[in-house]
Specification:
Keywords: Signal
Structural class: alpha+beta
Organism: Flavobacterium caeni
Mean pLDDT: 80
Protein name: Por secretion system C-terminal sorting domain-containing protein
Low-confidence stretches: none
Strand content: 35-45%
Length: about 110
């Protein structure tokens, strides 16, 4: 009989504790992770810079600058799910160039040596 009373008391405490915390944590009904922004991929071969951005989904603005900040090129490309473009830098003098890609409210920069 003592064991039964002891078991009943423990069970009552456990049930009371589990129901008293039931309203603290909100119930998760859906999971919407923050989408990641794909980083541009650059491939440099000879004097051609090939850029691809998978799933850009929004307009892509490309700016090419010299290391001192002088802007050489700016272009805006719209209505593309993914972005693919080749840049011929054969006419550029030897040096380093900064390629900036802006899309999905994010800017990525890559330095290209010629």
């Amino acid at each position: 009989m003592k064991k039964l009373l002891k078991f009943s008391a423990v069970l009552a405490v456990v049930l009371t504790a589990s129901t008293s915390f039931a309203g603290i944590a909100p119930e998760v009904t859906s999971y919407n992770p923050v989408p990641k922004v794909a980083k541009p991929m650059l491939r440099i071969q000879d004097s051609m810079v090939t850029v691809s951005i998978l799933f850009a989904q929004t307009p892509v603005t490309v700016t090419v600058m010299e290391t001192d900040g002088t802007e050489i090129y700016t272009g805006k490309f719209e209505n593309k799910e993914s972005f693919f473009k080749k840049f011929d830098i054969s006419a550029f003098p030897r040096g380093e160039y900064l390629f900036a890609f802006t899309y999905n409210n994010t800017t990525f920069t890559e330095t290209v040596k010629k």
